[in-house]
Design goal:
Layout (H helix, E strand, L loop, with lengths): L8 E7 L6 H13 L4 E6 L14 H11 L5 E4 L1 H4 L5 H11 L4 E7 L12 H7 L2 E4 L7 H4 L1 H5 L21 E4 L8 H5 L8
Parallel strand pairs: 1-2, 1-4, 2-3, 4-5, 5-6
Length: 198
């Protein structure tokens, strides 16, 4: 787990990153800028319980590719979930909070994950544990209106103009951040439809 000091604001951006690409880097950059974060933890997960793992590249390879893609020192590439044998995001967040008192964390995710967020293990617990920043992705702009998570926690939505206050907000709190979008997707790259760095 990366080193962090009390009082810092830290974004948690988790995923299988299979493979990582410029679209992921764009989400991380937008989150750092719009949320005014001190750090962003790029958490490469051992796997995704909701995805087919037959085509999952080895963790070491995904870590190495992530390191090659990222050049901002504020972005910390990590895979601590594998070390602690953690499978679900809710457990990851509970451990992070317990080990880092006084640090302000916010969960970062692309809008393409918002539509299926209600399928995540204990998804409501996640929303009640940390504030959430949803970053726009192609084809997912309207998910902040239609998704089950957005409807369930509509009362907790923060206007994106107030995004910088989100990391220090008490959960539940979430915002949808519009901005530049990349058409790249890990699925397309694996299928040979697009190139990783395009």
């Amino acid at each position: 787990m990366p080193f962090v000091e009390k009082g810092m604001t830290v974004g948690l951006f988790g995923g299988s990153f299979n493979p990582p690409h410029a679209g992921h880097a764009l989400v991380a950059e937008i989150a750092l800028r719009r949320l005014k974060l001190d750090q962003l933890w790029w958490i490469v997960t051992p796997g995704n319980p909701l995805k087919d793992t037959r085509h999952l590249a080895p963790l070491a390879e995904r870590l190495e590719r992530s390191q090659a893609l990222i050049h901002d020192p504020r972005i910390k590439i990590t895979a601590f979930e594998a070390t602690h044998h953690i499978r679900y995001t809710a457990d990851t967040l509970a451990m992070i909070k317990a080990r880092n008192p006084g640090v302000h964390f916010v969960w970062i995710m692309g809008a393409d994950n918002l539509a299926n967020f209600h399928r995540w293990q204990r998804w409501q617990k996640i929303a009640l544990t940390l504030p959430i920043a949803v970053i726009d992705r192609p084809g997912s702009t309207l998910s902040f209106l239609s998704s089950r998570m957005a409807k369930t926690f509509d009362y907790a939505r923060v206007d994106e103009t107030d995004a910088p206050i989100l990391p220090r907000s008490k959960a539940p709190a979430w915002t949808f951040i519009h901005g530049p979008r990349s058409l790249l997707s890990s699925t397309d790259i694996r299928n040979g439809a697009t190139k990783p760095k395009g």
